Amino acid sequence: MLLPRIFGKSTNEKLRPRERYSSVDCRREPEHAARCVFSNVGFVNDTVIFYEDPSNPLSFVGPSVKYTFPAHYFGIRGGTDDHHFVNVSKCQGPIPEKAIYADHAASFLIVPFWPQNQGHWLVDDLFASFSNMLELGMYVPNPQLVISKGCLDYFAREKTSDVEYCHDFFLRRTKGYSSQDPLFLTENPYSRESKAAKRNEHSKRAYENGDLIFQNLIGGHSTFALMKRGEKRSLHWNLFRRHFLKKSGLSEPRLSRQQITVVQKKGRRNILNFPDVLRATRGYGVDVVVYDPTVQTWEQQLEIMLRTTVLVTVPGGISFLAGFLQSSSVGLFFDAWDFHANRSYPLEGYWWEGLSAFRFLTYDYDASEASFPAGATDPSLLDHEMKVTAGLPTDRQLTVVDLHSEAKTLLYRFFTDIHVDLERYQKTLCEALAIAEANMRWKKSYDYKACARARGLVKQ
User: Fold this and answer.
1) In this model, does residue 154 exceed pLDDT 90?
2) What separation in angstroms does the CA of 148 have from each of 111, 120, 184?
3) Confidence band for 76, pLDDT divided at 50, 70 and 90
4) Which residues have a Cβ under 8 Å from the Cβ of 58 and sit 6 or more positions away?
């Protein structure tokens, strides 16, 4: 009963009659999360302009309050990081007559977690915003994303290719969420932003003149979306997945054979003997596909996931497309390294175990299979990226001994590679193939004898 109601015609699609004053509704959850809907407000220079009704003075109390008005900060992501807050400025209403109203009923204020990482964009931003819509009863088929910072704001000091990739990323990887182009409201414009936002030029000009009014400007994230386990988060993800596939013009194919998809990652947290792992994967009489997001288009990546019965992946944002596996599939995730415990652990285990979207398996390992970052064992300098991640100065020499405990934890988690034990890997892979076969109620969908040899049940 729930699916047709949510995905039928929304009662919130049409704009309400224009109102003369602003209003706000905030809802809090445990663990410092809050979601707020600001209605009939302006937004200029990272500041929500709240037009107060003098006959009904605003009394605003919530978990994201840093200061009282007029120096009040509203948490976009629902956390406590200052970078994820915008100012809220109160002024006396009514809303000016010259104001221009944005032509969308629901606008979501977004500060991207990592505007080059499609997995984190998908989960931390798009899914969290979608979950907000459901929690607030404001589902619309094409929500408007409002991004208060542009790619030059994020990558001003980086090379031009990073900025261009960032824009391609925003535009192409948002289509499954909404047919509306993101509305960039930034003081640091970029030529491709203007071209990309042609449909929003009316709103853009109004914003630049300080006259743009949003009917509903929504921000903050729900702990149900990102933190809490349970049926609600799993339900929200299933609805998000259905919404995303429909907007992307895709549907679940009927699977007729096994397909192992192996994620090839370039950068950090790599499989050092990847060619050997790939050769070992090909020995079971099933299709093997290499997933490489630097080569395949966004649509191709989704299609690969929909046809996968066993996914083999390293942890991190690159693994988040596993959420588009079919429910009969199996995800085999390599662990990350825990410096303090001196062992591996499932980095996103809390996330996948709470979704129940597919069967979640892990490949754990000890120090004999781990390849630690160079700075962990000698006084060589840390990578620039690690300094930035740890919030440490980049203009002076630093070694691991300079790092505090949390930063050292990040160093090992982000930069420890793995040299996979092929014998152990093949045993775990065969377990995954058997589970997928049982889920699909197939028979002889892979080479049983090859798996028997891998498990040591028969002589080589």
Assistant:
1) no
2) 7, 18, 6
3) low
4) 24, 50, 52, 69, 90
CA 434 – CA 394 distance, rounded (Å): 49
CA distances from 177 to 7, 332, 444 (A): 14, 27, 39
The pLDDT tens digits for 396-432 are: 555 544 544 555 666 677 778 899 999 999 999 999 9
* Cα 388 to Cα 334: distance, rounded to the nearest angstrom: 25
Indicate the fold that domain 256-372+416-454 takes in CATH.
Rossmann fold (3.40.50)
Q: Can you tell me the distance from the alpha carbon of 324 to that of 123, in angstroms, rounded to the nearest whole number?
A: 12
Q: Rounded to an integer, what distance in angstroms lies between the CA atom of residue 62 and that of residue 72?
A: 11
Q: Is 250 helix (H, G, I), strand (E, B) or coil?
A: coil
What are the structure tokens assigned to 415, written together?
């930069």
Q: Are 233 and 63 in contact (CB under 8 A)?
A: no
CA 354 to chain CA centroid, nearest Å: 16
List the structure tokens of 295: 């080569």
Compute CA distances 263 → 176, 289, 373, whole Å. 22, 9, 21
Nearest to 72 by CA among 315, 63, 171: 63
Query: Please, are residues 281 and 450 in contact by the beta-carbon 8 Å criterion?
Result: no
Listed by start position, the domains of the chain span 2-226, 256-372+416-454, 374-415
At 362, give phi and psi (nearest 5°). Answer: -125, 155
Beta bridge partners of 6: none
Q: How far, in Å, CA of 210 to CA of 91, rounded?
A: 14
Q: Is 145 helix (H, G, I), strand (E, B) or coil?
A: strand
Q: Are 422 and 428 within 8 A, CB to CB?
A: no
Q: Kindly list the distances between the CA atom of residue 228 and the CA atoms of 34, 42, 241, 336, 352, in Å, as whole numbers in the listed order.
A: 14, 33, 18, 21, 11
Q: How far apart are CA 311 and CA 253, in angstroms?
A: 17
Let me know: does 208 contact 201? Beta carbons within 8 Å.
Answer: no
Find all residues with CB under 8 Å of 57, minimum gap 6, and list them: none
Q: What is the dihedral of CA 227, 232, 238, 242, to 10 degrees?
A: -110
What's the chain's length in residues?
Answer: 460
User: Percentage helix, strand, coil, to 5, in the chain?
Assistant: 35, 20, 45
Q: Six-digit token pair at 268? A: 């950090």
